[in-house]
Structure to design on (704 residues):
């Protein structure tokens, strides 16, 4: 039974989402503010966080960044705005997926299950050799640990999975659509923003923002490929 | 100017006629007196000597420079002081022979004007009876140099006066014209600038004539226009913000309702019929409302100019397959697509997905099978090509009166379409998305029945290679 932490300020929505997700078979804890959500992160130990972007006091973006600082729990962002810029900002803050309000409990459930499945899938890649080196970057597929210049890199589930997918076939070009399907399991065009935002985040964490990226390279007009320096 | 000239011309003609008439009249009068004086001494059948004497007599009475006198009677003729009478025209002679009155003619010989007067000598046979022609005629030739000089002097004077008047008139006309034309030109410039959208344009008002009045009313009009346009813009912005705010506010209750519709749907079968039906209606209404709110948000995003393209080069054929597959429509749509890799272009995949899903969805919902989707390239010029995507169905087509409005918001094409899950915004959003790509969309009815929607997207094939990948690098 997946454990879901909902952070939502509106009491009706909070109760309704709680009810809907419970009905789908989740163990749900609902927090009314970002602060409460952060407090409950350790006692409740959720498998996934469903985070409203617009919260009074501490904003959803801040909560997202604070969770990412110390935890790799998947985060699904719920945004009432749905403008490209809101979605991209949310994704760049570290969210693994996003849904636009209003959302049916069944859709939210599908997204939650997909996020969790991807985490499990990352672990099942463990049959590969323990660690591969790409320049200064070492990817331990079994332990799911990535180190850059000897320092461990804290990656969100989607970032890790993107890196694992790309680095599994160095030199191969992946279209955004392929990556979307492989990493997020979305089967239609519509969310390539996820790919771009995640690549940007990953590049930032590998210390190669600005200038010429060494690991994740853009293939103009098509997608991305992984290259060892 | 023209009136000054014509006035001058009329005055000149009057004066010239007056001068000539007067000299002519006095000449004729004097000649008549002289002829009458000599006529008394002339016998009924005068001899050459009689004629010569009469001529001398008349000439003496008409002592003046260049005058000549001639007398004729039958074949006899006498003259003084010279015989130079070639100026006598046959017409004049004939005229004098048949008339009792003086006849005159003005001739021009060697550049000199002459007045020739012919006077028949008559006998008065008694009171009450008509005078009788004697057969003798006297002629007088008078050079009119003086008169001509007079007329010429007059012409020169008039010419000078006219030239001065003309010059003065031209200067005045120019002054008046520039006084009129400058404000008119300014007015023309101002109206042109106003037409270009510069509503803050105003004219400088000089003086108090009609043009100043016109300038003042132009300024008033411009000010009023600027005010009402500003007011309209404010109202429009307000209306847009209202739509965005309302849609946004609707999301919160809808989010609560949407989250529990699945719970309702799951429990409907176990409830009694009325309650179940009520729950089903609420569930359906909620999902329709969600769709409407999403469409409204999308529209208000277009209105606010916040809709941005996130371009990516994709294979259109492959892309359409994805769109159909994602909605489970593969089996229901006949596709005629180019081979993969043939039709690649830069589009915003999310927006194009909305476009294709809407057109195919409409065809499936409102039209009848078979629904066809064809894709091709139309080469307009060597450097301009369009990807042409056509979605057709076999349904009743689009009503003629609905055709011009189908891309308008909330326009319901027919009564059969009002009862559908569409919000009435789908085609408006579709058109906005196509236009955002610089493309075109059109609708038509097929000759054999059914509707055809055509989307044309500019192909950026050559540019794509040179352009850098904005979606990946810009963020």
């Amino acid at each position: 039974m997946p454990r879901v932490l909902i952070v939502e300020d509106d009491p009706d929505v909070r109760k309704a989402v709680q009810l809907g997700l419970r009905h789908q078979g989740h163990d749900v804890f609902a927090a009314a503010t970002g602060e409460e959500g952060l407090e409950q992160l350790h006692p409740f130990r959720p498998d996934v966080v469903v985070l409203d972007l617009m919260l009074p006091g501490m904003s959803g973006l801040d909560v997202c960044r604070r969770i990412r600082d110390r935890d790799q729990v998947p985060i699904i962002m719920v945004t009432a705005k749905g403008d490209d810029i809101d979605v991209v900002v949310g994704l760049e803050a570290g969210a693994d997926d996003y849904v636009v309000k209003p959302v049916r409990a069944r859709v939210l459930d599908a997204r939650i299950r997909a996020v969790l499945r991807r985490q499990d899938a990352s672990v099942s890649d463990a049959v590969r050799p323990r660690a591969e080196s790409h320049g200064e970057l070492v990817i331990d597929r079994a332990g799911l640990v990535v180190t850059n210049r000897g320092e461990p890199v804290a990656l969100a589930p989607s970032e890790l999975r993107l890196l694992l997918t790309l680095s599994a076939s160095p030199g191969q070009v992946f279209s955004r659509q392929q990556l979307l399907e492989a990493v997020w399991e979305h089967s239609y065009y519509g969310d390539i923003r996820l790919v771009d935002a995640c690549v940007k985040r990953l590049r930032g964490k590998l210390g190669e923002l600005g200038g010429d990226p060494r690991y994740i390279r853009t293939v103009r007009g098509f997608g991305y490929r992984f290259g060892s320096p | 100017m023209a009136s000054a000239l014509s006035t001058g011309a009329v005055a000149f003609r009057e004066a010239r006629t007056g001068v000539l008439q007067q000299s002519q009249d006095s000449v004729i009068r004097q000649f008549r007196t002289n002829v009458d004086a000599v006529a008394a001494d002339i016998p009924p059948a005068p001899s050459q000597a009689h004629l010569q004497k009469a001529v001398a007599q008349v000439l003496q009475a008409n002592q003046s420079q260049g005058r000549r006198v001639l007398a004729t009677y039958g074949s006899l003729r006498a003259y003084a002081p010279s015989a130079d009478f070639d100026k006598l025209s046959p017409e004049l002679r004939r005229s004098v022979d048949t008339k009792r009155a003086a006849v005159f003619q003005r001739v021009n010989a060697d550049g000199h004007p002459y007045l020739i007067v012919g006077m028949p000598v008559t006998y008065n046979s008694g009171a009450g009876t008509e005078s009788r022609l004697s057969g003798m005629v006297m002629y007088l030739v008078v050079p009119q140099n003086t008169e001509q000089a007079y007329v010429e002097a007059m012409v020169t004077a008039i010419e000078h006066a006219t030239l001065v008047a003309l010059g003065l008139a031209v200067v005045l006309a120019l002054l008046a014209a520039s006084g009129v034309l400058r404000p008119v030109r300014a007015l023309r410039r101002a109206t042109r600038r106003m037409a270009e959208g510069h509503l803050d344009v105003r004219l400088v008002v000089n003086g108090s004539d009609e043009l100043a009045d016109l300038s003042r009313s132009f300024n008033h009009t411009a000010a009023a226009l600027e005010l009402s346009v500003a007011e309209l813009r404010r109202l429009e912005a307000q209306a847009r913000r209202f739509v965005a705010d309302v849609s946004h506010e609707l999301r919160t209750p809808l989010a609560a309702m949407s989250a529990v519709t699945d719970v309702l749907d799951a429990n409907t079968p176990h409830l009694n019929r009325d309650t179940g039906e009520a729950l089903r209606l609420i569930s359906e209404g909620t999902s329709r409302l969600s769709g409407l709110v999403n469409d409204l948000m999308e529209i208000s995003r277009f209105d606010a100019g916040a809709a941005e393209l996130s371009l990516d080069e994709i294979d259109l054929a492959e892309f359409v397959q994805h769109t159909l597959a994602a909605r489970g429509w593969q089996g229901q749509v006949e596709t005629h697509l180019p081979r993969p890799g043939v039709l690649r272009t830069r589009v915003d995949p999310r927006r194009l997905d909305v476009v294709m899903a809407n057109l195919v969805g409409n065809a499936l919902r409102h039209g009848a099978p078979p629904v066809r989707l064809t894709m091709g390239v139309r080469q307009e010029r060597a450097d301009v090509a369009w990807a042409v995507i056509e979605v057709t169905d076999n349904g009743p087509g689009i009503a003629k009166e609905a055709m011009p409005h189908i891309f308008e918001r909330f326009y319901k094409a027919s009564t059969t379409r009002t009862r559908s899950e569409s919000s009435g915004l789908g085609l408006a959003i579709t058109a906005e998305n196509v236009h955002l790509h610089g493309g075109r969309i059109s609708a038509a009815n097929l000759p054999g029945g059914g509707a055809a929607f055509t989307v044309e997207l500019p192909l950026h094939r050559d540019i794509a290679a040179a352009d850098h990948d904005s979606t990946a690098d810009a963020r």
In short: The mean pLDDT of chain A is 82.
